[in-house]
Amino acid sequence: MAKPSSVHELVISEENRLAKKDRGKQAIKQEGLKLPLILLGAAVYSFSLNIFLRPLHLYSGGLMGFAQLFESLFNRAGITFGGVQISGILYYLMNVPAIILAFKKMRRRFIIKTVFAISSISIMLSLIPIPAAPILNDMITTVILAGVLCGIGVGIILYEGACDGGMTLIGMLIVAIRGKSSIGQISIMTNIVLYGIMLFLFDIPTTIYSFIFSLFSSIATDRIHAQNINSQVMIITKLDDIRPMEVEIMSRLNRGMTEIKGKGTFTGEDVRVFVVYVSKYETSRLRAIIQSHDPRAFIAETSGVRIDGPFMKHLQ
Q1: Rounded Cα–Cα distance for residues 122 and 67 (Å)
Q2: Can you list the domains of the chain with their CATH numbers?
Q3: In angstroms, rounded to a whole number, what is the distance separating the alpha carbons of residues 269 and 238?
Q4: What is the CA radius of gyration of the chain?
Q5: Distance in angstroms (rounded) separating the CA atoms of residues 51 and 163
Q6: Cβ atoms of residues 218 and 187 within 8 Å
Q7: Is 134 exposed, middle or buried (0-12, 13-18, 19+ CB in 10 A)?
Q8: To 5 degrees, how large is the angle CA 302–CA 305–CA 307?
Q9: End-to-end CA distance of the chain
Q10: Per-residue model confidence as pLDDT tens for the chain (316 residues)
Q11: Pick from 298, 272, 276: which is nearest to 232 by CA?
Q12: Which terminus of the chain has a lower count of CB atoms within 10 Å, N or C?
């Protein structure tokens, strides 16, 4: 017959197992709900690229820019592939090495959502017809509009914990390793190289307008990409045993915490105050962890804080 302490440990172990299983089911459900929004972001990006940018005979940045460039070179050589737009197919094929490279660094759920996003973009780019003439008469207005909308599309995909592939994916790897810079900044530096090559193949206006598109796209992406917004979260709890909550926050979010002992002014009760710095993207996960341990915890969040020092950006 098992000792009472052993029975108690078995009960706790079973409760932890069931709680972990329940969290796993909730995580799968939450990830599934993100797929329609990722599809929306892919649609906004693909529509804006084909409807606004491509009729101007301009080029996107990163791997998509190279895919367009190769398609143009094929057309110049008289290879038309039966009139099928192959830039989306080329983009997909060029992303395969980047996905393999990221497989060891990124979480499985991130890779699945990223493959879904890249596949959606590739299919839509092949299906959405390119108008024979520009939709708007003003060149610079069309370029800026295309850049902002494409940036919004990419930003939506990133916000939902996926990636549109290409240099964005490579940029996320660089940020994850270095902990500095941003996706938009890395894209801009990469595009300087790309458009430098284009300068020798096309006329100057084509290169300049393409770079303007890339610039506005990168800016729009950074404005929506919540992982680039830092938040300070203050937690006040009266729990006697806060170790389980600390362990879960540090293990699931990979974030450190600062504890301050305090006392309630009106109640005179001892409280524990924790300060955690996370990206805005992580605040909902942090809040869920805290409330699962203490539903009555006081949580205060301040967004847009500047952080200097060894703060690691988590991009997935």
Answers
A1: 11
A2: 25-226 (no CATH), 229-303 (3.30.70.120)
A3: 8
A4: 24
A5: 22
A6: yes
A7: middle
A8: 135
A9: 48
A10: 444 455 555 555 555 555 555 555 565 666 677 889 999 999 999 999 999 999 998 888 888 888 888 888 887 777 877 667 788 889 999 888 878 877 877 778 888 889 999 999 999 998 898 898 888 888 999 999 999 999 999 888 887 878 888 877 877 767 666 655 566 666 667 777 777 888 887 888 888 898 889 888 878 887 776 555 667 787 888 777 777 887 777 777 777 777 777 776 677 677 778 788 777 667 777 788 888 887 878 888 776 556 555 555 555 5
A11: 276
A12: N
Tokens of 264: 């309630």
Owner of token pair 């029975």: 7
Q: How far is CA 147 from the centre of its chain?
A: 18
Least Cα distance to 123 among 150, 169, 87 occurs for 87
Cβ(110)–Cβ(27) under 8 Å?
no
Dist CA 183 CA 191 (whole Å): 12
Rounded CA-CA distance 116/104 in Å is: 18
CA angle 194, 166, 42 (to 5 degrees): 115
Tokens of 119: 């596949």
Q: How far apart are CA 71 and CA 85, in angstroms?
A: 8
In angstroms, rounded to a whole number, what is the distance separating the alpha carbons of residues 226 and 174?
Answer: 17
Count CA atoms within 13 Å of residue 3 on its CB side: 3
